[in-house]
Design a protein that fits this description.
Length: 199
């Protein structure tokens, strides 16, 4: 059974260990992408990360399944007023955070992320990804991995059309395209894992 945690402006959420945030849609583009999401979830857990995700089905569930299979804590982050409408969490979520609006939900993801992995999805996933890219270029250069064919096509489009480009004041060194779970493992092994706020 999921534990419920209500978070608001006056609530502090204690960090314990490393946290990975996973953004991915409820309708996988392919069986291969679903398998990749599960392998990425497993790789994150094996590297010592807990998982924050939307909590529902599709790629989110696949990543959660992979992470939970390795014993990682898997937290669903949802909206207070939408949970009944959106349905039950996937069976791999071990805890949940219910927030009052989309801004608070995004802030929760980004504030606690030591790494972000984004795959394909719908407009909600696109919103999460663009918020993460903006956050990483302006607030804190949290590593962002884009994985799977849909996300890699989107990244190529954003670069080609100059929606995403590097400048001296906004470097893109935080952003990595990964094509496999093995590539995720390699990238994770090279990250600086000092807790947020520490040198």
């Amino acid at each position: 059974m999921n534990a419920l945690h209500l978070a608001g402006p006056a609530t502090s959420w204690a960090r314990e260990g490393l946290t990975a945030v996973f953004f991915g849609g409820v309708v996988p583009a392919s069986a291969e992408e679903e398998s990749l999401a599960e392998e990425i979830g497993r790789a994150l857990a094996q590297a010592g990360y807990s998982l924050l995700h939307g909590g529902y089905n599709g790629l989110m569930e696949a990543a959660a399944r992979g992470a939970s299979s390795e014993g990682a804590t898997v937290t669903a982050v949802t909206l207070t007023g939408k949970h009944d409408e959106w349905g039950p969490f996937n069976p791999h979520a071990t805890s949940s955070v219910h927030l009052h609006d989309l801004g608070a939900r995004l802030n929760h993801y980004l504030r606690y992320a030591d790494v972000i992995v984004a795959m394909g999805g719908g407009v909600g996933t696109l919103h999460e990804l663009t918020a993460a890219l903006y956050y990483a270029t302006t607030i804190r250069p949290v590593p962002v991995f884009l994985a799977g064919s849909a996300a890699l096509r989107l990244l190529a489009f954003l670069r080609q059309e100059k929606w995403l480009y590097e400048t001296p004041t906004r470097p893109l060194g935080f952003l990595t395209a990964v094509e496999s779970a093995a590539a995720v493992r390699t990238c994770l092994a090279t990250l600086d894992t000092a807790p947020i706020g520490e040198a």
